[in-house]
Amino acid sequence: MWETIHQYIENGPVKAEILESVLMIVGILILRGVILQAHFRRNPAMEIEEKRRWVVVSRNFTLIFAVFGLAIIWAAQIQTLALSMFAVAAAIVLATKELIMCLSGSLLRASTNQYSVGDYIEVNGLRGRVVDINLLNTLMMQIGPHTLVGQLSGKTVSFPNSLLLSHSVQRDNVLGMYVIHTLEIPVPIHLDSDAIVPGLQKLLEKLCLPYIAAIERHLEEVQTQKLFITPAAQPRITRVPHDDKVYHIVVRFASPVQKRLEIQQALLDEFIRIQYKLLNNKD
């Protein structure tokens, strides 16, 4: 019986490679679906970000396995085609340069674990929270539009993974559930910093106090486990000269990721109130 089926496949209208390719792809897709459903059923309380991460990772692995499987099945035909296309290989490389760079950037990201789904990153001036990653590009929910506004704008922005080869990646939540956040506030040069900084410092310490002890423990664990040189958890405010018109107040504090925007906005509100009072008193 199996010999008859084999002869039919070999001599029939459907080539064996085509049938094997279809069966392999269907099998991989079914296996992926079964694994995902089983994992989700075993972990019903899994957060949506974690589910999304599993879906993205499984999809990328499925694509890689499918490509390798097709390469094995069609190896003989690919070898024949490669020999016949040797004369135009240089032209193909030039035509697919951007594609190769995107795949190289994707390989670099995966090997160095630069970022994953749910991370806050900035690449070449593009800021956002990663929602999808594939072999060619990365999709983010945009943050902005102003640099001091860290809220999601509701728009998506994508960039080719080739940017990872030529631009640095800034990742906000490298310390996990906590973040070291820094912002610069430009101040007119004629406003006395001694009338501004103490009020901001007092408010900042009050806002950060509930989290400092937990953050210090977390930073010690990160330093022990990953051998990172972690920054201090205590909030700090420094004054930096800029030009003859403004100077900058640099605010640095540690907080949970979901609280940093709330603390930042409270500081900005307090600064605006102080600035308004100083300007009115001067006038």
TrEMBL record:
GO terms for molecular function: mechanosensitive monoatomic ion channel activity. Keywords: Membrane, Transmembrane, Transmembrane helix. The chain crosses the membrane at residues 18-35, 56-75. SUPFAM superfamilies: Sm-like ribonucleoproteins. It is found in: Membrane. Residues 105-167 form the Mechanosensitive ion channel MscS domain. It holds the Pfam family MS_channel_2nd. InterPro entries: LSM_dom_sf, MscS_beta-dom_sf, MscS_channel_2nd. One of its GO terms (cellular component) is membrane. This is Sm-like integral membrane protein.
